[in-house]
Specification:
about 0% strand; about 160 residues; globular; mainly alpha
Length: about 160
């Protein structure tokens, strides 16, 4: 004898009815957080860039320039200063959400340079996978914008 209630429930599952209800239970609260998602990405990337810039000053710009020179970076002294200052200023700008798309674009280019000059020979694993992850996050900010809470939104540089 077949249990029709079990058969009915199984056919409903295959038809997608209960799966949709479960999916909606999970996704509806997450959908409400969607406007804040890129705010978190932006702030996390900003903090990381700020810390990298501060570390370059702590290490000493002459030492950073020496490393840049060894990697073949053009104008190593100027490049070291630019990258260190940009990571600090750009990191703060990302944290507060000011000029987000421009800062993300410039930083993505800096990271492409880091891959080309310092890490390409190392391969992706153990070499430039972290840079690639940064670039992916920065490109997402370029495409999507700063997220909900940002100076860009307050100044109406970005639309809602």
């Amino acid at each position: 004898m077949t249990n029709t209630s079990t058969s009915t429930r199984m056919s409903d599952v295959h038809a997608g009815a209960p799966q949709h209800a479960v999916a909606a239970t999970i996704t509806e609260p997450l959908d409400r957080l969607r406007p804040y998602a890129f705010t978190g990405v932006r702030i996390a990337l900003g903090v990381l860039l700020l810390l990298h810039g501060l570390d370059k000053f702590d290490t000493g710009l002459a030492n950073v320039a020496g490393a840049f020179d060894g990697w073949g970076v053009p104008l190593p002294e100027l490049s070291a200063r630019f990258v260190a200052v940009f990571e600090v200023v750009g990191g703060v700008a990302l944290i507060i959400g000011l000029a987000t798309r421009a800062v993300a674009g410039v930083m993505a280019l800096v990271l492409v340079g880091a891959i080309i000059f310092a890490k390409a020979d190392l391969g992706i694993l153990g070499g430039w996978e972290v840079d690639l992850a940064y670039i992916a996050g920065l490109v997402a900010l370029i495409v999507v914008g700063p997220g909900f809470a940002s100076v860009d939104r307050v100044l109406r540089i970005e639309r809602d």
